[in-house]
Amino acid sequence: MMDFLKRFSRNKGALLGALILIVVVLLAVFAPLIYPDSPWKMVQRPFLTPFSTDGFPLGTDTLGRDVAAGLVHGARVSLIVGLVSTLVALLIGVPLGALAGFYGGLVDDGAMRFTEFFQTIPNFALAIVLVAILEPTLPTITLAIAIVSWPPVARLVRAEVLSLRNREFVDAARLAGLSNMRILFGHILPNAMSPIIVMASLMVATAILLESSLSFLGLGDPNIMSWGYMIGAARTVIRNAWWLSFIPGVAILLTVLALNLIGEGLNDALNPRLARKGR
Amino acid sequence: MADPVLTIRDLAISLPPGADREFAVQNITFDLYAGEILCVVGESGSGKSMTANALMGLLPEQVEVAKGSAHFESRDLMQLPAHERRKLRGDRIGMIFQEPMTALNPLMRIGDQIAEVFEAHNRHSPAERRQKALALINEVGLPDPEKIIRAYPFQLSGGQRQRAMIAMALALDPAILIADEPTTALDVTTQAQILNLIKTIQQRHGMSVMFITHDFGVVAEIADRVIVMRYGEIVEAGTAQAVLDAPQHDYTKALLAAIPSDTVPDPAPVTAQPVLQVRNLRKTFVTSGGFFKPKREVKAIDDVSFEVARGEVLGIVGESGSGKSTVGRAIVRLVEPDSGEIILDGQDMNTLTAAELRSARRRVQMIFQDPYASLNPRKTVLHALCEGPIVQGVPRDKAHARARELLEIVELDAGAADRYPHEFSGGQRQRIGIARALAMDPDLIIADEAVSALDVSIQAQVLDLLRGLQQRLDLSLIFITHDMRVAAQLCDRVAVMQLGKLVEIGPVHEVFLNPQQEYTRTLLAAVPGTDWQLGAA
């Protein structure tokens, strides 16, 4: 574990990413303490420019709502959607990919054709359709994002399991009389964890982007302030109040960048041999 | 043998910080004379390949020549700029590698790869290049040059690929040929042919050959002079005869002593009850063809029958593709046999259902070849040793106590239990593998190439351990190996396999000293260094 932290911290970018993410997480966690009022509440006259009025460091939006409050509360939505949808995607993709890789044959064919069925439909289009059919609430949006993002997980896990299942230690486990499930979940999957973790960190970033895009199109939960909604609401006034789109945009950029940097750092730290060659 | 072609003085190669030692090699001083074969011998990590790579300018990143010189044709190789060295490579110094499949470009035809050598050095017109390539293919003894020139590497066998590599290395008639373990990945009969080829070509072209190997048998077969390396330093140098017959350094003596000898023991015939009877075992692998491709069938096990007595060691020897490993895996049903009986103490393993098989697994255990792949890197040694017994219903504390006991039996200290596999060396891991097999208290143990991945001195230790355990615990053992010498040392009886068939089986001294089948005789004759050892015995 110490070894892992050491290797991770050797990557400067990954440290920066971790730092940014920690700030975002802290903001999200303490949002109700920093801005106890609802971010939807109109508190000043509209179109206050940033850094011009005391108490409203980022100004107000088209309806006089506090941009800073929106940003902080939006962080919660982004992170929750990102994490939960990734978890759900892993819960679908990992077992499916593992079974396909482990059993091969018909199971593999079935599982992979099913996966391809989802892969042939463009992610975003499918997400829009799903949200439009279901009611646009936070859980359904999360579910929709999970449903469009699990196929790559299944493929990755399948490939890992395929290469691990012929290792001699798996044969040894078979000879010990272990059941298939125990071999799969006790011996094979733990050895496939590193790439799954790396992929998961990048999936959180993608999920945040997807959620923002949905909200931007007005398909977000109408009761929840999110970064995507803020950009969407401000796009009509982008020529005279560009900062209203710019500020939540930067928030998305930084968070996604942070997650990508962390993902890369994790990759280096978990696959030290590849990392050394890369540099 | 007057003039040295290559003069190496005080060469040292530094490793990046954090490696297990500061220098990969140091104080390397030797000469390579015109028209000689110089063998560089050492175990893994001795720095023998590093030395060759330094000469070729092929050192990995962060590994640098720290000091020293290597004079070749009145120039110091270590001081030459990169483009000058590139001109030398392939032209004046050729190199062949251990694994010809990865050393050849899989997407290029053999002829084009040879022609490319000429092209890279701007020699000849395209038509001439083709002619030369044909001549080379002919020279290295590849059959049907017109066909080979159009073949892709995957269409050739291992030995043919190595011949193609040699043809490439010979293309520009180099003064020095560096061969880095060129026969290690090959079967023993193929190895004999390639060694022969290298020798003939060396004489015909008057080349100097620097031949890197770990195998003293190979040394005895081809070397004029020998350098023995350990931990990056030369410990002994001299003519082949002097080093082999009268080694000076303790390490060389130890290495030579560790070689399994050809002196065949004459064990008392085993008369006990058979623990395992295999009858008419068959397994055919079918690769499913596409729409237009015909199916391909490989008979991996073709009607094989034999018995193993209680307390007996049966060796199964054969070259790669002979089906010897498949037999071992079929007995434990890691491979499902097509038909046949595998009777273990009266119970036919081949008729068991999956659930019955799981509880019967205990009775036959395996020791695997690769000590790095056979242990789960994420589980402690204790876990590896206990998981099986616990699944079979042994109480946890009893299993733990037994595991610690077994570690002692295989001569590892008890503290090993709580460590992870990566903290152990190859030989130690193989001991753990043996302990794991013993933990299940099996009736029969199958060791599949259990010592093949180990250095010769480690190999000797593990073999000693196996032999001791076998006698002490009265184990029944099937020992699968490609190495005739190892088989001769450990086994009571030997079975020889070829192309899925059992060609000969009998007590070890009969098979080795009085082989009945032509194939067995060929195999035995191909073992490198036979003459030298017979002379010594």
Could you provide a short overview of the structure?
The complex is a heterodimer of chains A (279) and B (537). With 279 residues, chain A is mainly α.
Give the SSE map.
The complex is a heterodimer of chains A (279) and B (537).
Chain A: H1 2-10, H2 12-29, H3 31-34, H4 67-103, H5 105-120, H6 123-133, H7 138-149, H8 151-164, H9 168-175, H10 180-191, H11 193-216, H12 227-234, H13 243-270, H14 272-278
Chain B: E1 4-14, E2 23-33, E3 37-41, H1 48-56, E4 64-72, E5 75-76, H2 82-88, E6 93-96, H3 100-103, H4 110-120, H5 126-139, H6 145-148, H7 158-170, E7 176-180, H8 188-205, E8 208-213, H9 216-222, E9 225-230, E10 233-239, H10 240-245, H11 250-258, E11 274-287, E12 296-309, E13 313-317, H12 324-331, E14 339-344, E15 347-348, H13 354-360, E16 364-367, H14 381-391, H15 396-409, H16 426-439, E17 444-448, H17 456-473, E18 477-481, H18 484-490, E19 493-498, E20 501-507, H19 508-513, H20 518-526, H21 530-536
Parallel strand pairs in B: 3-8, 3-9, 6-7, 7-8, 13-18, 13-19, 16-17, 17-18
Antiparallel strand pairs in B: 1-2, 1-4, 4-5, 9-10, 11-12, 11-14, 14-15, 19-20
InterPro entries (chain B): AAA+_ATPase, ABC_Ni/Peptide_Import, ABC_transporter-like_ATP-bd, ABC_transporter-like_CS, Oligopep_ABC_C, P-loop_NTPase
Protein name (chain B): ABC transporter ATP-binding protein
Keywords (chain B): ATP-binding, Cell membrane, Membrane, Nucleotide-binding, Transport
Q: Main traits of this protein?
A:
heterodimer, A: 279 residues, mainly alpha, MetI-like fold, 0% strand, B: 537 residues, alpha/beta, Rossmann fold, 3 domains, 21 helices
Sheet/helix structural class of chain B? alpha/beta
Largest sheet of chain B: 6 strands, mixed
Q: Mind telling me the CATH superfamily name of chain A?
A: MetI-like
Structural class of chain A: mainly alpha
Count of helical regions of chain A: 14
Architecture overview:
The longest helix of chain A has 37 residues, at 67-103. Mean pLDDT of chain A is 89; it is low at 275-279. In chain A, helix 13 (243-270) crosses helix 14 (272-278). In chain A, 46% of the residues are buried. Chain A has helices spanning 2-10, 12-29, 31-34, 67-103, 105-120, 123-133, 138-149, 151-164, 168-175, 180-191, 193-216, 227-234, 243-270, 272-278. Chain A is built from 14 helices and no strands. With 279 residues, chain A is an all-alpha fold. Helices cover 75% and strands 0% of the residues of chain A. With 537 residues, chain B is of the alpha/beta class. In chain B, the strands form 4 sheets. Chain B has a 6-stranded mixed beta sheet with strand order 6-7-8-3-9-10, with helices on both faces. The radius of gyration of chain B is 25 Å and the shape is globular. The mean pLDDT of chain B is 86. Chain A binds chain B through residues 167-169, 171-179, 182, 187, 190-191, and chain B through 329, 332, 334, 358-359, 361-362, 364-366, 368-370, 373-379, 384, 387-388, 391-392, 433, 436, 440. Chain B: It is found in: Cell inner membrane. Chain B: Pfam families: ABC_tran (PF00005), oligo_HPY (PF08352). Chain B: Residues 6-256, 276-524 form the ABC transporter domain. Chain B: One of its GO terms (molecular function) is ATP binding.
